Amino acid sequence: MEIKDRIIAGAVExxxxxxxxxxxxxxxxxxLSISKKTIYQxxxxxxEIVTMAVQAHLKRERKEYDxxxxxxxxxxxxxxxxxTCMRKDFKDMNPSLLFDLQKxxxxxxxxxxxxxxxxxxxxxxxxxxxxxxxxxFRKEIDPEFLATLRVEQVQLVFDKQIxxxxxxxxxxTQMKLFDHFVHGVVTEKGKMxxxxxxxxxxxxxxxxx
Amino acid sequence: MEIKDRIIAGAVExxxxxxxxxxxxxxxxxxLSISKKTIYQxxxxxxEIVTMAVQAHLKRERKEYDxxxxxxxxxxxxxxxxxTCMRKDFKDMNPSLLFDLQKxxxxxxxxxxxxxxxxxxxxxxxxxxxxxxxxxFRKEIDPEFLATLRVEQVQLVFDKQIxxxxxxxxxxTQMKLFDHFVHGVVTEKGKMxxxxxxxxxxxxxxxxx
Lengths: 209, 209
Known about the structure:
Two copies of one chain form a homodimer.
Chain A: H1 3-18, H2 25-32, H3 36-42, H4 46-71, H5 75-90, H6 97-104, H7 106-134, H8 143-156, H9 170-185, H10 188-208
């Protein structure tokens, strides 16, 4: 891996775990056992690292989710795989992450907003339309509205004013939110299939540990 | 009705229909066929009218919802009656209403926030706990989390950046949101009862027209 990519990967790891605000250039240098001078050879300032770290993280996430949507047999399998992926992504994620971006790094925040409002929302709309067509999701639901609601909800859970970290663990709360969202869209047939897939995912993950 | 109460009632009507920002003291005076001078005998300024209008509106809403929660046979009947009430409340409500309060009338906004975070949230928590106990709502749900989510969702739909009025009609969108929320919490038994109550509510409302 090139040194520039190593710096970005190290930054992604630190930001995810500790939030953006509390990680300094010194921390990144220390984490990678390089000098701060080396970092500045590749990046103008911390803001540039943050933007590129967000881009790199979203690129990886996009690849991961694209694979789910390409390889699933039906809309319910998509959901069950997204569920597993989210559980992994939100584990150890610092709840300050999005707030720090919004407040201190408008460039990186805009990268996130665009990804959320275009890529993620589209994937949800497609998933919901597919599920309705397959008879697994209720035909009364409005895909465009629910996709918009869904991306906003995920972001809402990061809001510490509304969901203080001492009462609402980020990962648990995101999983509860996802569970409620899924139950709000499935038909009885879809619900039974969802439970079946979740059991299967659980077995795969237990065997891979 | 005393003149002061008439002014408040008139203001509630105008604010609900047109939003707060676009209704002037002149509009209120004209609506009630009184002079502006008369209004200023009872209120210091528009901000004071707005605060008292919000208080009066929430007091009426509280009475209406309290009756629902006192007179219902089970948690599902509560929900179906809340649904009818919401359909009526959001009809003809201007989507700018909450935004105007937040931006221009912090006192009135705080009255709303307190009502939302204490009274409404508590009623939802109680409804969810009751439904779980009665076997109509899934035992896996977390009442505290879902009540917090619910009150924030209702407010979110007023956000014109996220749900632009030309694509998302306020009443329709609120009803879709409510439908998704209910389906996310009910068991199969609860869902069947909910449908039954909705049919009953529909008949009552048709007969009362």
